[in-house]
Structures are given as C-alpha cells and as structure tokens.
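Subject: for your reference before the review

Hello V.,

The reviewers asked for a structural picture of the protein, and I figured it would be easier to keep everything in one thread rather than splitting it across files. Below is the amino acid sequence we used in the manuscript, unchanged from the supplementary table.
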Amino acid sequence: MSTTLAALRRQLAGPGLKPVYLIAGAEPLLVIEAADALRARAKELGYLEREVLDVEAGFDWNRLGDAARSMSLFASRRLIDLRLPSGRPGKDGAAALVDYCAAPPPDTVLLVTANDWSRKHEGAWTAAVERAGVLVAVWPLKREELPDWIGARAASRGLRLSIDAIALLADRVEGNLLAAAQEIDKLALLHAGQAVDADTLEASVADDARYDVFRLADAAIAGDAARALHIVAGLRAEGEELVPLLGWLLTQLRILLRLASAPNVDAALRSERIWPQAREGVFRRALKNSDRSHWERCLEQAGRIDRIVKGRDELQPIYAALGKLPDLTAWREANGWRELERLVAAIAGTRRAAFLLERA
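And here is what came back from the structure prediction:
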C-alpha cells in the first residue's frame, strides 16, 4: 500500500510490521526520522539483527538475495536496511527488488530508504513494494503546513510556542526543516516547560550568529538562490562581518570539490562525515548539476572576496604606484558584499550560473 508519514506512525503503534517498507523523499530530515522510528519499533518487536546494505556505484544486487536466504545468527528476527540514496535501483536492482517482494523471507523486514524522489522514480519495483508492504513518499511541506509542523514538534519537545513565535520561526527558517528542528531543540534546552513568545524567540535566534551562516550555506548548496540571497541581505543588515562568513563557505566548497573529484561519491560522503546526516541529500543535489571546475571557480571567487575585504586586491598596487592610498574601507566592504552575492548565486545555480564568476 501507499501511505503517509502520519499513517505510518499509526501503523508502527500496531502489533506487527509489514515485510517491506520503502521510505523515500527529498526532505531528508523527515525520511531519516521516519526510518529511525521504524528501526526502533522493529527492535521493540524482536528484530534484533540488522544488516545494512549501502547501494553505491557497482553495487552487487545479488547481496540482497543472499541476505534474504541467509539464516539469522543471533536472533529469530532480522531487519535488512537497504540504503538507496538516488531512489533509482537500475535494471538489476529493480529486478532484485521485484523478486524479493514476490516472496519475502519470514521473520524479516526489508527497509529501503531513498533521499531523492518523484513520480518518475516509480515503476514495477515500487508496485511490487506496495503489494508486499508499504511505500511512504515523503513530500516537502507546503508553506501553509509549516506552522502546524513547528507547533507539533515543539510540543513533542516539551516546548510551548505562542502563535506569533511559531509564525516568526516559520518565516526565519523559510521551509528549511532541519534549521527549524535545530532551533526548536535549542529552545527546548533553554526554555523547557516554559511558554516562549515571539520576543524570546527573536532574542534567541539573534544571539546565534552561526545559525544564519549555516542556513546561508545550506540554501546556496541546495540551489535556492532566492532564499540564500535573502539571508545574505539579512546578515549584511545585521552588521555581520564578511570574513567569518567566508570561513564556513570555504569549508563547504572544499568538501564539494573533494566530492566532485571522488571516483565514488557515496564512499566520499561517508568519508567526509557530513553532519547531520540529513545534509547529505543537499550535497548530492548540488553535485548533480556541477563538476570539479565549477567548484574550483567558486573557491577562486571566495579567495578574491577575502583579498578585497583584507585590502589585498588588485587596486592596491595601482594606488601605491600613484603614491597615495585613500580610505577604501567603505568601498571594499560594499564590493565584498556584492562579490559574495555573485558567489552565493553561482553556488546555487551551479553550471547554469557560471557566467556570474566571469571577471568583468
């Protein structure tokens, strides 16, 4: 059957589990938490042995059949945890999943998770999953759904947010559920069991400069140029300094360059130990529309911004040759922010926005 996250939670409260589950969607936080809930319930029901299969380039799909046929060594019930990041098993994978679903082994649950999903992913293998078990397609929340999600999550953490506080947080995170979850967890630590109004929330968010820097990087890498540029404008209006912002962006760009250069992206992602795990989906989407040369140019642009802000750009020798060095502080700051906007738009647009990094 095909179901929703809410229906899945109700099912997990029941007496047993289906033989097969597919949890897939482009909202990493919701996918991860739903899969974690299923794993926890399976453990409660005695599925104490767990085998993890990471589908990477060149993955041998015979391993799924071998796992289905193997006997449990330590427990009478097993969970096979199949991680399919792209949501596309390919011809061999689709056939292997169809065969598995046609005759699921007893006392075994197969959990398939995917971090990318659309109607185009569906096929004979997803139909087989629906016949044998449950398919949960996780779609991004609509803007009007976000306040209810924030309120429910806050309540689950023992936090009481006023209506104005919920509206303010929904506006600040702009659809980024991971950012909202992080802020709620922080508020729960600071104000557990208390009522939090908009003024309290505003003060809490304003005191955490890193929160906005992280949001900026994630929005740009996720390809949301409008939101990323909106965050840049907000940071500039609040008087943030450029150099600390560049530090975090440089770190993320270097990771992207290493990933784009790696022969096996899945193995490289594990090596980078990106935290939290939900951010892996953000990096995967960026890599789909980019290549090594693009991230090299982004790094060059970041270096140029650093030179502008620190007064080491190409104008320095020109004024030195003239024998005068006017106060260029205001000019450098304005130019630095302008170049940061170009960099952020290029990161968000990847190869489609390569012209933004061309020197005038």
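For the response letter, the relevant points are probably these. The chain has three domains: 2-138, 143-207, 241-357. The domain at 143-207 is CATH 1.10.8.60 (Helicase, Ruva Protein; domain 3).

Happy to draft the paragraph if you're swamped.

O.
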